[in-house]
Write a structure and sequence with these properties.
With 401 residues, the protein is an alpha/beta fold. The protein contains 12 helices and 12 strands. The chain has 2 domains: 134 residues, Aspartate Aminotransferase, domain 1 (Alpha-Beta Complex), CATH 3.90.1150.10; 259 residues, Type I PLP-dependent aspartate aminotransferase-like (Major domain) (Aspartate Aminotransferase, domain 2). Strands 2-8-7-6-5-3-4 form a 7-stranded mixed beta sheet, with helices on both faces. A 3-stranded antiparallel beta sheet has the order 9-10-12. It has a two-stranded parallel ribbon with strand order 1-11. Helix 4 links the parallel strand 3 and strand 4. Helix 3 packs parallel to helix 4. The relative contact order is 0.17. Bound molecules: pyridoxal-5'-phosphate (PLP). Pyridoxal-5'-phosphate binds next to helix 3.
Length: 401
């Protein structure tokens, strides 16, 4: 099987698996217990927090463990609005291409608190229109929430410019980094050590107030996510309790947390190696180039410059074809890919993300997302190219015949 659906989830690494198994077998005591085994587990959870914090160069005290990326997003956005009952008619600014987790919490806030959601328009290619964002911010704007990288296209948003704008206007910025953290350098700048390697070669993090991420997108386990909250950010707990310094209640998922930390350490090694990420990017670039060259009429959804998309993602439109059929045929030939986000697949509607980016409906219907990981080999991609070209040629023959 050639797995090119890493934006849906990644395979847990063996280090993550070992850490989880040892937590299940040996570190099963409650980290809030006073006794010796409980305190031993507490120490391991705190070491894990430090590893996860290092991945984004944050202070460990600012990391809140959550149950997934969705939970992290809801804790951040819900928590900020829960803390701001001083604004009579508050609004949230976000984009039309966010993950459904953002839409779910904004709908809830609208119903329960009358929070208005404003959507920033996109420029062709899927990057937000910064002038439009500036105009949308007003005295009632409490929070701007924007994804760092899109799950369907890999398009990267200009977080540094967005963050500068938010600071000028005194508005908080939450970033959904679920498809970014672990794959790209991240530096929120509150870690105790001065970072030296490429893993933290990033200027945008300094402008962010809250960052959401999820372990299963970077070879960690499912069911555990992280929320980084910059010290001093006003936020109330959405799920109150004594754990996580009162910011998220509930006994910690110790196996998940230790698995996430092991995965974070490996991501740091990957990111700190100056060769590995560019090599992985070249594999993706070669894959997409080969398909575009061999399939007439196919094109990339998003900027054609691959550097403007996260190194692991490519979303290719095969106009006139139905993505679902392409995916089923690919699956029969041993290639796993997807269309739209995993959460909304199973529907025959074209992806709302692609439509919001201005992709025409015929192309959106026939668009397939391929997402590689750091372990995807050139040989696997060569086989996948043959499978994709073969499927598309067969289907195109059926249409024209
Ligand atoms: N945000 C983005 C951009 C995502 O791609 C996903 C998952 O696909 C999420 C949030 C939700 O993360 P989780 O699956 O951990 O809840």
């Amino acid at each position: 099987m050639i797995y090119l659906d890493n934006n849906a989830t990644t395979r847990p690494s063996s280090a993550a698996r070992d850490a989880m198994l040892s937590a299940i077998d040996e570190l099963w005591h409650n980290p809030s217990s006073m006794h010796r085994p409980g305190q031993a587990v507490r120490r391991r959870v705190e070491l894990a927090r430090a590893s996860v914090a290092r991945l984004i160069n944050a202070s460990p005290k600012e990391i809140v463990f959550c149950s997934c990326g969705t939970c992290s997003i809801h804790t951040a956005i819900g928590g900020v609005f829960a803390a701001r009952d001083d604004v009579a008619a508050p609004n949230l600014i976000t984009t039309p291409i966010e993950h459904s987790a953002i839409k779910a919490i904004s709908n809830k806030l609208e119903k329960q608190r009358g929070v208005e959601t404003k959507l920033v328009p996109l420029t062709p290619g899927g990057v937000i229109d910064l002038d439009a964002l500036e105009k949308l911010i007003d005295d009632n704007t409490v929070l701007v929430s924007i994804q760092w990288a899109n799950n369907e296209t890999g398009v990267i948003q200009p977080i540094e410019q967005i963050g500068r704008l938010c600071k000028e206007r005194g508005v908080l910025l939450h970033v959904d980094g679920v498809q970014w953290v672990g794959k790209m350098p991240t530096n929120v700048g509150t870690g105790s050590e001065e970072p030296t390697g490429p893993a933290h070669d990033d200027a945008a993090g300094a402008w962010i107030d809250m960052l959401s991420f999820s372990a299963h997108k970077f070879h960690g386990p499912k069911g555990v996510g992280g929320l980084w909250i910059r010290r001093g950010t006003r936020i109330a707990p959405v799920s109150p309790g004594s754990q996580e310094q009162g910011r998220r209640g509930g006994t910690e998922n110790v196996p998940g947390i230790l698995g996430m930390a092991a995965a974070a350490e490996e991501c740091l090694e990957f990111l700190d190696d100056p060769a590995q990420r560019p090599e992985a990017a070249r594999r993706r670039d070669r894959f997409e180039r080969a398909i575009l060259d061999r399939v007439p009429g196919s094109h990339i959804n998003g900027p054609s410059d691959p550097a403007l998309r996260v190194w692991n993602t490519t979303n290719i439109a095969f106009p006139r074809l139905e993505a679902e059929i392409v995916l089923l045929m690919l699956s029969e030939r041993g290639v796993c890919a997807s269309a739209g986000s995993a959460c909304s697949s199973g529907s025959l509607e074209p992806s709302p993300v692609l439509l919001a980016m201005g992709v025409d409906p015929a192309s959106a219907h026939g668009s397939v997302r391929f997402s590689i990981c750091r372990e995807t080999t050139a040989e696997e991609l060569d086989q996948a190219i043959e499978a994709v070209v073969g499927c598309v040629q067969q289907l195109s023959g059926t249409i024209s015949g």
